[in-house]
Design goal:
Elements (H helix, E strand, L loop, with lengths): L3 H12 L21 H14 L2 H10 L4 E2 H8 L3 H13 L3 E6 L2 E6 L2 H17 L1
Antiparallel strand pairs: 1-3, 2-3
Helix pairs in contact: 4-5
């Protein structure tokens, strides 16, 4: 496995192979800007888990209002079991939180970052269309 130093040296060589504006900038300044392998892996896993239509549909509803499993299931035309399964995954990656009220459990987005992420992606896709 290549170390960060090996990758850095290869990057330096690739960037020095022909004239361009980066030749005047010490390439070491970019070392602090690149994701670590560990963080990149965690982010890739996060986005992989987000790549599910039903999870995104659940988030789209929770972006507007907290809802219980039975309401989510009815709106999405899914079984409560299927919705619960998706919510477990969303809880595991800390995108949703829940609050028990009597016998019902209400779900909402974890925090404003999740809402902003959802809204940003939705807005970006609307602009592209």
């Amino acid at each position: 496995m290549k170390t960060d130093t090996d990758i850095s040296e290869e990057s330096d060589e690739l960037l020095k192979c022909h004239p361009h504006p980066l030749e005047t900038v010490p390439l070491t300044i970019f070392q602090n800007q690149i994701l670590s392998v560990e963080k990149a892996q965690r982010m890739a896993e996060f986005f992989s888990l987000m790549g599910d239509t039903n999870r995104l549909r659940i988030l789209s509803l929770l972006a507007h209002q907290e809802l219980c499993v039975c309401d989510l299931a009815a709106i999405l035309n899914m079984s409560e079991s299927a919705v619960s399964h998706q919510l477990r995954t969303l809880k595991a990656i800390r995108l949703v939180s829940y609050e028990k009220r009597g016998r019902k459990v209400f779900y909402s987005l974890q925090d404003h970052h999740v809402l902003e992420l959802y809204e940003s992606v939705a807005e970006h896709l609307d602009e592209v269309d």
